[in-house]
Specification:
Order of helices and strands: EHEEHHEHHHHHEEH
Number of helices: 9
Structural class: alpha+beta
Radius of gyration: 18 Å
Largest sheet: 4 strands, mixed
Helix content: 40-55%
Number of strands: 6
Distance between the termini: 27 Å
Shape: globular
Strand order of the largest sheet: 2-1-5-6
């Protein structure tokens, strides 16, 4: 049996979009799962996805966008009511009625990518701040200042982030990651890729994510499947 000290960390790649309320709920449930498997070394990476890449850079009026997407205002109200209840159970106070614009999230994903270069904790902090800004504080994620403020609040160098956002740095890299997710069959988010082996689709309960992590860890211990090298 392998030495447990030699076991590499279990990776959890979270394919997510910061304009997706289910992804915010999924983040809370992932946090619950990580608490349940506290004895296992886990590394979390946040990966980009765009639920709607057709939204223009300046975003769209939120009500008009939902009207085009769903047609029925009552349907949207029912969806939001369900999410508000689920969010409350996870400590999230969704403020859907206050959100004025649906954003194109490519720039937000660029910031998340740069945060990942500074480490897992920094990336988590930026993702959390972006979710909170959009869904709780109803901030406009199409505004560069909002993204810079989110990065600064999390501890990143604001002027550096602002300068990077002014150009196209890593835009193509983010788009390539999204394309890769689509190629492997991801059509909705959140999607949790556990150790590059198991996929947990949707904002599943914490226990489901925790079980997938434990299963992968036990396979590592048993030597059933050695870890796959990341490209």
């Amino acid at each position: 049996m392998p030495d447990t000290q030699a076991i590499e960390p279990i990776t959890v790649d979270v394919i997510s979009d910061v304009m997706c309320p289910w992804c915010y709920i999924g983040k809370r449930r992932l946090e619950g799962a990580l608490a349940d498997v506290a004895g296992i070394d886990v590394v979390v990476n946040w990966r980009p996805f765009q639920l709607d890449p057709t939204i223009p850079p300046e975003g769209k009026d939120r009500r008009a966008y939902f009207k085009e997407k769903f047609g029925d205002d009552e349907r949207v109200r029912e969806m939001h009511a369900q999410l508000v209840e689920l969010g409350r159970a996870e400590g999230i106070d969704f403020a859907f009625e206050a959100i004025e614009r649906s954003p194109n999230t490519i720039d937000a994903h660029r910031v998340v990518r740069w945060a990942g270069i500074e480490g897992e904790k920094m990336q988590d902090a930026v993702v959390e701040r972006l979710f909170s800004l959009f869904f709780v504080e109803a901030a406009d994620l199409t505004q560069r200042k909002t993204l810079v403020d989110a990065a600064t609040d999390a501890g990143m160098d604001g002027p550096v982030v602002e300068a990077l956002l002014a150009g196209d740095a890593d835009r193509e890299a983010v788009q390539d990651e999204i394309a890769t997710a689509q190629k492997i069959g991801v059509t909705g988010v959140p999607c949790f890729i556990i150790d590059n082996r198991y996929a947990v689709l949707g904002a599943q309960e914490s226990s489901v994510i925790a079980d997938a992590i434990r299963q992968s860890y036990q396979e590592r211990l048993a030597g059933v499947r050695p870890p796959v090298e990341q490209g």
